[in-house]
Design a protein that fits this description.
By secondary structure, the chain is of the alpha/beta class. The chain has two domains: 135 residues, Rossmann fold (3-Layer(aba) Sandwich), CATH 3.40.50.1860; 107 residues, Rossmann fold (3-Layer(aba) Sandwich), CATH 3.40.50.1860. The protein is built from eleven helices and nine strands. It has a five-stranded parallel sheet, with helices on both faces. It has a four-stranded parallel sheet with strand order 6-5-7-8, sandwiched between helices. Helix 8 packs across helix 9. The relative contact order is 0.20. The structure holds D-glutamic acid (DGL). D-glutamic acid binds next to helix 3. D-glutamic acid (DGL) binds next to helix 3.
Length: 259
């Protein structure tokens, strides 16, 4: 069981921003990535639909022997993590949520922008977190309109992308935010563009990937699930969106097609 893969799930390609940190920090662990590219984006879909899609996808991953599931999708976590934990009590699940706490604790201006999908920002999880820190900072929830589509179509470097991203980022900075939380795993792929827009202004981007990786390590130890030290890891990519999409997943993390 210990050499079985860790499952990494996202609605599409966004979870690869978590996958690459896991691969770097856990070099003995096999990883099975499932991107639901055929049904992405999830962000504006009704709660029931996101729940059903997430449960179906996770069941496929479990049938491939995953020893742990990382919901590398803030939207899927907001909707489905409690349900999945109740349904599969023996499986360790790691969920993602916007890194509001470190942003609120470090802001100097007292204003924190949280970029995420509509479904994540509506969710109980985010409402609870923002209520908890409401007396420490002004939290501005903002949907990254069009961001997921750009990343799914690998248009990060196209000239029009900067305009789409600017339309979302400038109002957050104008409102006085000095922290911008990337609360959707697709958004780190736009980090360079966001940094260019921020320019010299004292605004820090806050991401959750490292905290999630530490949580994965903690749970591997707690459940005694670490792969053997001499285990040669395998990296599997799955999707029902077809072979070209699977190749695009591999390309996004710098693995050659078919290898
Ligand atoms: N990457 C996902 C997240 O972290 C969702 C993107 C989408 O499907 O809308 O929220």
């Amino acid at each position: 069981m210990n050499n079985n893969p860790i499952g990494v799930f996202d609605s599409g390609m966004g979870g690869l921003s978590v996958w690459r940190v896991l691969r770097e920090q856990l070099p003995h662990e096999s990883l099975l990535y499932f991107g639901d590219g055929a049904r992405c984006p999830y962000g504006a879909r009704p709660h029931e639909e996101v729940l059903r899609f997430t449960v179906e996808s996770v069941e496929k991953m479990l049938s491939h022997g995953c020893k742990m599931i990382v919901l590398a999708c803030n939207t899927a976590t907001a909707v489905a993590v409690e349900h999945l934990r109740a349904q599969y009590p023996a499986v360790p699940f790691v969920g993602l949520e916007p890194a509001v706490k470190p942003a609120v604790l470090s802001t100097e201006s007292g204003v924190v922008g949280v970029l995420a999908t509509r479904r994540s920002l509506d969710g109980e999880l985010f409402c609870r977190t923002s209520a908890k820190y409401a007396d420490r900072a002004r939290i501005l929830p903002v949907v990254g309109e069009g961001f997921v589509e750009i990343v799914e179509q690998s248009r990060e470097s196209e000239p029009e992308t900067e305009e789409t991203v600017r339309r979302v980022i400038e109002p957050i900075i104008d409102a006085g935010a000095d922290r911008i939380v990337l609360g959707c795993t697709h958004y780190p792929f736009l980090r360079e563009v966001i940094e260019r827009i921020i320019g010299e202004r004292p605004v820090v981007i806050v991401d959750s990937a490292d905290a999630v990786e530490r949580r994965v390590e903690y749970l591997l130890d707690e459940h005694n699930l670490r792969a053997d030290k001499n285990h040669a890891p395998s990296y599997t990519f799955m999707s029902e969106a077809g072979e070209p999409y699977i190749n695009a997943l591999r390309t996004k993390v710098g693995l050659c097609e078919g290898k």
